[in-house]
Design a protein that fits this description.
Chain lengths: 375, 198
């Protein structure tokens, strides 16, 4: 969808972007993050040609951006900035309708767009459409800023630290809304932030930049697990220590407690049926006294299972288990070396407390540091 | 009495025509100055220089071109009024917050669309204030019209001086002062209203 090819940008002597290559897929939520001055905004503004590269090319939908008319290109790309940038001389409705009007949409059409967009963020048309931006709170203003960028349903939306100036609670709910809208409308979003929490929460892919280069491009969990450079660990580490300095973390803090358990006397068919109904590919098997017995995977049942037999014959006890009060560090290390993608967390009486997965880890980390995460 | 009203009317007419012309030219020059910074620096320097020429000298110079009469007075007032209008237009446009300029550009507005939909509406209070200053100044400068054969209240004041008729001088001067105060008051109100809206 968006493709940077050997893009370089200089200001005088200073090289701001060095031979940047970046591929952004359709429908992907990409977050650019990195220290101040690393070139995030510059990268973003090259997509809508507010900044032109000195060398290299940028393709949008396979077309060279520099060969397109800049004004027309920009109308097809949503743009949200940190300072919100609602025009004070226009009402909420007029602000949202700017691009539709530039594109000469008929009046009925842009009016219905304004209505449906306001509905999307629970701001009733009757109450808000005719207000001026100065009559709204900061959070409401940025909601309108986001809607304005979505008005002609552009396939690409650029956001430069859109929630940077908002208080934490408003920021949380806007993050959630944007994520929801993105999922629903399937937009390609390029989002700049220097808040790692925000990046972990929102991104499909995080692009970490430093001094005009991409240091790492990875999914959030992957970046948490495998930071490519010490600067990334520092970036995340700073969040981790500042969020939870004096409270030690245990395995139980990272686990998911809703897990599927079956007694070892269950029949193979029952198990298969349960797995397919709940869309999982392994089950935890427990003893009659509810203590942990082992795990069974769908492959195992399919390969060796015979109808009507007890599941206990197929159970493996290779999955790593860990006590719920083990320290988090050990738990994470074990998780990373585990072949099974998860660990079983046991209570003191050896019953199953939950499991630790990569997703539950990322979620718990986020929660520990920045409060409640969206499910 | 009817002589007074005619004079007031002529005075106002000369001033409004001059300010009308000057606003059009001044706002256009202000916009050009904003678009092309070096031109702006030059234009504002030029307009400031015009202001330093004593009004009598300026009118005398214009008289060489336009001869005696109202046209010369209007031309003089237009030149005098340029500075506040150009300067305020330029300052107003330049002080549009850069994030609004960026937002409008990033959304795909052309240069003219940005000007008419965002930059001018936001600068209106500032531009209007320039017009107000120009108009109030022009009301008193227009009194000089009598020296170059233009109509207006200057004529009544001049005759009063010649006849050493104090009452007659006041008859001409008081309306000038009153009009200046009135315009200033009303236009300041409008200016406030405009800036609240923005
Ligand atoms: N117009 C300009 N002239 C000169 N240098 C510039 C200009 N714009 C940006 N720079 C420099 O380019 C570098 C990258 O800027 P950019 O705005 O992309 O950083 P950023 O990653 O967005 O930083 P931040 O997190 O502070 O917003 C910075 O060092 C900045 O000082
Ligand atoms: Mg930036």
């Amino acid at each position: 969808m968006i493709h940077f090819q050997n893009v370089t940008k200089r200001y005088g002597e200073k090289i701001v972007l060095k031979n940047l290559n970046l591929e952004i897929r359709k429908g992907e939520f990409v977050v650019l993050i990195g220290p101040s001055g690393c070139g995030k905004t510059t990268t973003l503004k090259m997509i809508n040609r507010l900044i032109e590269p000195d060398s290299g090319r940028i393709f949008i939908n396979g077309e060279d951006a520099s060969k397109q008319n800049a004004v027309e290109l920009r109308r097809k790309i949503g743009y949200v900035i940190q300072q919100i940038g609602l025009f004070p001389n226009m009402t909420v409705e007029q602000n949202i309708a700017i691009v539709p009007k530039l594109l000469k949409y008929p009046k009925e059409e842009w009016q219905s767009i304004v209505r449906s967009l306001l509905k999307l963020v629970d701001m009733p048309y009757e109450d808000y459409a005719h207000k001026y931006p100065s009559e709204l709170s900061g959070g409401q203003q940025q909601r309108i800023g986001v809607l304005r960028a979505l008005a002609v349903s552009p396939p690409i939306v650029l956001m430069d630290e859109p929630f940077g100036a908002l208080d934490p609670i408003t920021r949380d709910s806007l993050q959630e809304e944007v994520r929801r809208i993105q999922k629903k409308l399937k937009k390609t979003i390029v989002f700049v932030t220097h808040d790692m929490g925000e990046a972990l929460r929102m991104a499909d892919t995080i692009v970490f930049m430093n001094e005009g280069r991409i240091v790492q491009k990875a999914a959030p969990e992957e970046m948490l697990r495998n930071p490519a450079d010490s600067i990334i660990s520092t970036f995340m580490g700073r969040h981790i220590t500042s969020g939870r300095q004096s409270v030690p973390l245990y395995a139980e803090d990272f686990m998911r407690t809703k897990v599927l358990k079956v007694p070892k006397t269950s029949k193979t068919l029952e198990c298969i049926e349960l797995m397919s109904r709940r869309d999982v590919n392994s089950l935890i098997v427990i003893e009659d006294d509810e203590t942990y017995f082992g795990t069974v995977t769908i492959e195992e049942i399919k390969q060796h299972g015979k109808a009507g037999r007890n599941i206990s014959e197929l159970v493996s006890n290779e999955t790593i288990t860990i006590g719920r009060k083990e320290d988090a560090r050990t738990a994470l290390d074990r998780l990373l070396e585990s072949a099974a993608n998860y660990l079983i967390v046991l209570n003191d009486d050896l019953t199953v407390a939950g499991i630790v997965t990569r997703t539950s880890t990322a979620k718990a980390l986020g929660e520990a540091l920045w409060g409640e995460m969206p499910a | 009495m009817s002589e007074l009203f005619v004079a007031i009317f002529q005075h106002l007419l000369i001033v409004t025509v001059a300010i009308g012309i000057s606003s059009i030219i001044g706002i256009i020059l202000g916009i050009l100055s904003y678009w092309v910074r070096p031109l702006g620096t030059f234009l504002i320097w030029f307009a400031e220089m015009l202001q330093t020429i004593p009004s009598l000298a300026l009118l005398a110079l214009l008289m060489i071109i336009f001869g005696l009469g109202n046209i010369t007075m209007i031309a003089g007032l237009v030149l005098y009024a340029l500075l506040p209008i150009v300067r305020n237009t330029y300052t107003g446009l330049s002080s549009v917050p850069s994030h609004l300029r960026e937002a409008s550009k990033g959304m795909g507005m052309s240069r003219l669309q940005r000007l008419f939909q965002v930059e001018i509406p936001i600068s209106i209070p500032m531009i209007f204030s320039g017009v107000k200053i120009a108009l109030v100044n022009s009301l008193s400068i227009a009194v000089m019209g009598v020296l170059i054969g233009a109509d207006g209240l200057g004529y009544i004041i001049y005759r009063g001086i010649q006849q050493q008729n104090f009452a007659r001088i006041l008859t001409g001067a008081v309306p000038v002062v009153l009009m200046a105060i009135l315009f200033d008051y009303v236009m300041t109100k409008i200016e406030r209203f405009l800036s609240i809206k923005c």
